[in-house]
Amino acid sequence: MCDVRRPPLAVCAVLVGLAFVVAALASRAADASPSTVRVVERDFHITVVHGRLTAGTVVFRVTNRGPDEHEFIVVRADHGLPMRPDGITLDEEALEKSIVGAIEPAPAGETNVLRLSLKPGRYALVCNMFGHYMGGMHAPLLVR
Ligand SMILES: [Cu+2]
Hints:
The chain is α+β, with helices and mostly antiparallel strands.
């Protein structure tokens, strides 16, 4: 890397030092990258895999394994979730202010990405297509 006949050794030492600084900055940038939540939906279950989630940008990668279409809704759930009078689906009108993001119903085999900025709190990940929530398509999510 350094030709000792021309640049003095001190210059080499500075260059090596700079390389360490750049590497340290690069690893710090990697630490600040958004949290990723891997979600797999199927009839009628939601599987969620993630590490420790802290407030800030969270990227959801949602795959529908089908066979039915499924939607994906992220909703604040600090105080429970209200049902519609039918007792089968969540009352999305009542939840309007609590819904932080959603992916429209997607066919089996599709993967969609949803990028959200989340505050600390308890959330629920749900599919609220008719009967799907009651069928088991909900999972909790905690953001610290
Ligand atoms: Cu569904």
